[in-house]
Amino acid sequence: MAILEHYPKTTVKYKFINRNKDFKISFIAYKKLLQTILDLEGIQLLEDEYHYLRDACPYLSNEYLDYLKSFRFNPRSQIKTRFSPSSQIDSKDNDKFVNIDSLQKNYDGDTLGGLDIEISGKWAEVILYEVPLLALISEIYYVYVDKDWEKDMDLQRTLIRNKTERLLENSCSFSEFGTRRRRSFLVQDAVVEELAKIRKTASQNAQPKANSFSESNKDGVQKMGSILGTSNVYLAKKYGIPPSGTVGHEWTMGTAAIEKTFISGNKLALYKWIATFKTNLGIALTDTFGIKSFFNNFDYFLANTFVGIRHDSGDPIALVDLSLSHYKKLGIDPSKKIIVFSDSLSADKAIQLQQICTSKGIGSAFGIGTNLTNDFVKSSNTSSVSPPLNIVIKLIECDGFGCVKLSDDPGKHTGPISDIQRAIHELRNIL
């Protein structure tokens, strides 16, 4: 919606990035992935879903809801892929990218190789591929490639209940963020169903619970834990819990590239966000160009208007201290603000961070993803973890200009090398 308002004609390019260099996919899994991506052509917003969004997400304009109603995926013209057999992964002789409805070559089904995906087109259209594509890749991988994992869903439901009860007992408010790297749709469906049951039981208590990150610290530091919702809007509708999430890095990355400034990229993105959503969706993402760059841009108006900030890389405790210092320097009471943590969280880590924030006098909430929807053990050895994939899809180009993310974890920098170096040079006196 913000893109349609501010950058409706912008064309972009995305790239699939596998952070685990040992990741390989079989050719039969690759072919299945191509077919499921083509199946996206049949997706459309149904009438009851249209009305649900209007009621559950009042910050979405009627114009945008009408846009979603008419929207259709067009993967044949917007997605290109490449399968590189293991023997060719590092070779200059790799096959070229091909359209999603093509195969560059046929290999034996069990042949393992690397997966490359490029997505290009109008930003407002192709932005919607990231979440379903990552979810499909993850699910297909665990059906066709890594089959050694414990599939007992009763155990998963018990695990989710135990984690949730611990979080709530320790005053943690959290939302489920696990769509992109879930083990499967059925796993996430079970997770959200259990969360909805627990939330319903908790709602019978006299003390009201928050329904969003923006509400979770409205009256000072949160005293009770609560289930804020799920970022999967379909499952939110199905199980009657709030859709809940925050802005992604690509909004700041794209704004900075289009406006040709890394120094003011955060500020421009945040001001444009407010122009679109006013005081709604008020969690600012901190780590697109490093935390110091963010606070350099986070002026009094922004710090006062946004209800809080989100941590997604780097030292979380350092961020707590920096935010406290920044709010106090601006004369803003930090006890009225909130930090949303979303970086590789477990229940234990969330509880620890909640206790730190409470002791320091600032609110906290948590977006927990992979640990809720992809926490499995091997079926062959239940004392060993069946690791989740570490995959992302990142914006790499806007209107021909390279997009960059300078994570507070250096290993997570993304973008063309030359553009990363240019960003670091431009921000050299801030980073």
UniProtKB/TrEMBL annotation:
The record, for InterPro entries, names:
N/Namide_PRibTrfase, NAPRTase_N, Nic_PRibTrfase, Nic_PRibTrfase-Fam, Nicotinate_pribotase-like_C
Cited Pfam families: NAPRTase (PF04095), NAPRTase_N (PF17767)
Instruction: Identify the residues that the record assigns to the Nicotinate/nicotinamide phosphoribosyltransferase domain, covering every copy.
Output: 172-414
Its pathway is:
Cofactor biosynthesis; NAD(+) biosynthesis; nicotinate D-ribonucleotide from nicotinate: step 1/1
- What is the name of the protein in this document? Nicotinate phosphoribosyltransferase
List each copy of the Nicotinate phosphoribosyltransferase N-terminal domain by range: 2-84
Q: Which organism is it from?
A: Smittium megazygosporum
Asked if the keyword Phosphoprotein belongs to this entry, the reply reads: yes
UniProt modification remark: Transiently phosphorylated on a His residue during the reaction cycle. Phosphorylation strongly increases the affinity for substrates and increases the rate of nicotinate D-ribonucleotide production. Dephosphorylation regenerates the low-affinity form of the enzyme, leading to product release.
